[in-house]
Amino acid sequence: MSGNSFGHLFQFTTFGESHGPAIGCVIDGTPPNIELNEDDIQIWLDKRKPGQSRFTTQRNEADKVQILSGVFEGKTTGTPIALLIENTDQRSKDYDDIKDLYRPGHADFTYHQKYGNRDYRGSGRASARETANRVAAGAIARKILGESIALKGALVQIGSHKINRGNWDWTEIDNNDFWCPDPEMVPVWENHLDEVRKSGSSVGAVVEVIARGVPVGFGNPVYDKLDADIAKALMSINAAKGVEIGAGFGAAELSGEENADEMRIEDGRPAFLSNHAGGILGGISTGQDIVARFAVKPTSSILATRQTITTDGKETEVSTKGRHDPCVGIRGVPVGEAMVACVLADHMLRHKAQCR
């Protein structure tokens, strides 16, 4: 099985399964002499870990990270950094009833057809548990980027319920269970998800990630565009089904005059009057905020009964028991932040190597 690594100069490779003894990753390309300890990584893992509200899976994992290599006396050595996160709350018996069934909308079918086998216990590598590795790698990417580049994510839509952007307040994302910047939408989402959970169903969401302080020049045309790499990074997240940069698909509704981000000179420097491009032109960062969104489909493991087939080709029905996120997009916020951080760290190193 290939495809377990991401990045170019800053690269990480993840390993492990949802119900195996542990998961982890190896990060290569981190410059030496960057201060790093386990707390620097744990703070971000704690934001993603399960069981923090009734709106996410109740699997109880501490997600305690161990640094196995690449750090000496509190600083990176420039060698590969190996991280380990033990699994401590697996309940594999929850999956006994579906070990010979395919869940509609899930990777069960394609994994089995491609490899001739599949780990039905929590979906193995297809599980959202794998994303803890990405958050850990993203924590190191943030250390490379430094304090001048800030990344923040927010949930802007659950199901058909969208936030009011006029109410956007970054301080609110720490005051609720949804990373929601619109306080008026929080009770709407709470009621909606309570109904979804009680019905045994699930719902999708849209996550928005904004990177502020990115200088002009990150990105390499033609095939290594910054927005192309961000799109790949976000689309690689479990359950992601669509990505937008800036105005995204909404740009199709704009005229050329509306879509053009006009420019003036302010305080002797180029300044843009809008940001429909999402901070990237021609695959290269403009110095504006980088704005990316990704849509997350509803969780495929649901209690509601669905028609399916067995692994030996018989028609049947399936109802998935266990501990599953009614909206996996909620925990997708720190994962999206991490993936954008990894892309930016990679392009920062690539930019410095070519354009000193």
Topology of this structure?
Elements: E1 5-7, E2 11-16, E3 22-28, H1 38-48, E4 65-67, E5 71-72, E6 75-76, E7 81-86, H2 108-115, H3 131-145, E8 150-158, E9 161-162, H4 186-198, E10 205-212, H5 226-235, E11 240-245, H6 256-259, E12 263-266, E13 269-272, E14 280-281, E15 284-285, E16 290-296, E17 306-309, E18 315-318, H7 332-354
Antiparallel strand pairs: 1-2, 2-3, 3-7, 4-7, 5-6, 8-9, 8-10, 10-16, 11-16, 12-13, 14-15, 17-18
- Which percent band covers the strand fraction? 15-25%
Could you estimate the helical fraction of the residues in percent?
10-25%
Strand order of the largest sheet: 1-2-3-7-4
What's the β-strand tally?
A: 18
The secondary structure category is alpha+beta
* C-alpha-based Rg, rounded: 21 Å
Low-confidence stretches: none
SSE order, as H and E? Answer: EEEHEEEEHHEEHEHEHEEEEEEEH
Give an overview of the whole structure.
The strands form 6 sheets. Strands 1-2-3-7-4 form a 5-stranded antiparallel beta sheet. A 5-stranded antiparallel beta sheet has the order 9-8-10-16-11. A two-stranded antiparallel sheet has the order 5-6. The longest helix is centred in the C-terminal third of the chain and has 23 residues. By secondary structure, the protein is α+β, with helices and mostly antiparallel strands. It has 7 helices and 18 strands. A hairpin with a 2-residue loop joins strand 12 and strand 13.
